[in-house]
Amino acid sequence: MAKDADSIVFVIDDDSSIREAIKSLISLVGLRVETFGTAREFLQSELPDAPGCVVLDVELPGLSGLDLQRELAEHGIKLPIIFITGYGDIPMSVRAMKAGALEFLTKPFRDQDLLDAIHQALERDRAAREHSKEIAELRKRFDALTSREREVMSLVVAGWLNKQIGFELKISEITVKIHRGRVMDKMGAQSLAELVRMTERLEIPKAKDQSVKTR
């Protein structure tokens, strides 16, 4: 798990012996670990900006593990959750998984099962963070476009020809080409197909398809 060395695992369990056992296990594979005895302690902590996951006991004093799962979701905290419990039942595990939990392990569980789940959780969080970073960069590029460039971009990705765009926006075809070039440059797109994929990732509404229309 060398590539997870920059990651952190949060362990939340009210049983100190279990907390320490899990902490020791995770530390052995080179991961950072922080432990908490209650859900409230975790909520009051400052989360580092690094890939991570939560190993969470279902039965906790005060706020339960399932309650914490809901609160994290409500606050937009998307850390993958691995539930552990000594009293798990099928309805409880189904509820946890439907709410987005990555795994539901019943005590006693094999060390390797927990480590495998943690590895998968960290991979998921790292991928999600990378995706968010890429979207933020694309959004920054899009925000740098002028209103006219955004109009041209919308029509270009919808398949409009330069002359159609010029007629629609009441500008010359040469001006359309200039705006089109600036859009490609500012967005960092090497092709029309790449520009289309960028607008899809940003979920930008496209103009009506005019690819078969001539004026």
Written overview of the protein:
This protein is 53% helix and 12% strand. It folds into two domains: 2-133, Response regulator (Rossmann fold), CATH 3.40.50.2300; 144-201, Winged helix-like DNA-binding domain superfamily/Winged helix DNA-binding domain (Arc Repressor Mutant, subunit A, Orthogonal Bundle). The model is unreliable at 211-215 (pLDDT under 50). The protein has a five-stranded parallel beta sheet with strand order 2-1-3-4-5, sandwiched between helices. It is of the alpha/beta class and 215 residues long. The termini are far apart. The protein is built from nine helices and five strands, in the order E-H-E-H-E-H-E-H-E-H-H-H-H-H. The chain has helices at 16-28, 39-43, 65-74, 90-98, 111-143, 147-157, 162-169, 173-187, 192-201; strands at residues 8-12, 32-36, 52-57, 81-85, 103-106. The radius of gyration is 25 Å and the shape is elongated. Strand 1, helix 1 (16-28) and strand 2 (32-36) form a beta-alpha-beta unit. The longest helix has 33 residues, at 111-143. Helix 6 (147-157) crosses helix 8 (173-187) and helix 7 (162-169) packs across helix 8.
Topology:
Layout: E1 8-12, H1 16-28, E2 32-36, H2 39-43, E3 52-57, H3 65-74, E4 81-85, H4 90-98, E5 103-106, H5 111-143, H6 147-157, H7 162-169, H8 173-187, H9 192-201
Parallel strand pairs: 1-2, 1-3, 3-4, 4-5
Summarize this entry quickly.
This protein is α/β, with parallel strands linked by helices and 215 residues long. Helix content is 53%, strand content 12%.
Mass-distribution shape: elongated
For the record, give the distance between the C-alpha atoms at the N and C termini, rounded to a whole number.
Answer: 60 Å
Mean pLDDT comes to: 90
Radius of gyration: 25 Å
Low-confidence stretches: 211-215
Please give the order of strands in the largest beta sheet. 2-1-3-4-5
Residues in β-strands, percent: 5-15%
Which fold name fills CATH's third level, the topology of the largest domain?
Rossmann fold
Number of separate structural domains: 2
Fraction in helix? 40-55%
- The level-1 CATH class of the largest domain: Alpha Beta
